[in-house]
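Researcher: Structure for this, please.
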Amino acid sequence: KGDSQLLSFLKANLHILKNRAKNYGVYAIFDWESKKPPINQLSKNIDIPKHNPNLRIQAIQLTKPVLLYEKAREAILAATNIILGPGDLYTSILPNLLVSGMVETLQKAHATKIYICNVMTKRGETNEFKASDFLHEILRYLKTSYIDVMICNNQNFSPEILAKYKREGAHPVEIDANAIQGVKLICADVAQESDLARHDPAKLAKLVIGL
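Model: Predicted structure, token format:
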């Protein structure tokens, strides 16, 4: 829904190109930080989470091979801008990069590549992540220095919202600008606050259009 709202504010034609593969999911591999083998969890269990939330995710993988839809490949190659995000890092963004042919197609594309960093960390997935940690994971799965622009939110949230997220083991993503190299870093107010802290589609669209 959020992506569709962003596209509507960008005045873009919305075409949803889905992969045809069915009955596949995402596994996360966690490090026990011991001599024991790593443990696996399906993405639906990561979100809850059902694992020890203090374990760091070492990698994710699809439960079975998935091929990039040809129309999606064509759309990527013809794009002016390619936007990664917003969304949960390990269960929404990175799984798309595991689709066979996706990374190679993104590398061939001449579009401006824009990564929208998360507003908040998430317990069990991105504990204590800073902005550079999110970018590092994106680049690790892209297997190249691929991102042209990184957008980070610098809006402050109310004490009530911060307290709510703290109870859930989450906090605003710290922008460690000195650790972010080779990417145009844009820090701006791109969030909105209701009962949750989320990206604001209108603010994001205005920023992206102005790039």
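Researcher: Any notable elements?
Model: DSSP finds eight helices and nine strands in the chain. Strands lie at 26-30, 39-42, 57-62, 81-84, 112-116, 149-153, 184-188, 191-193, 197-199.
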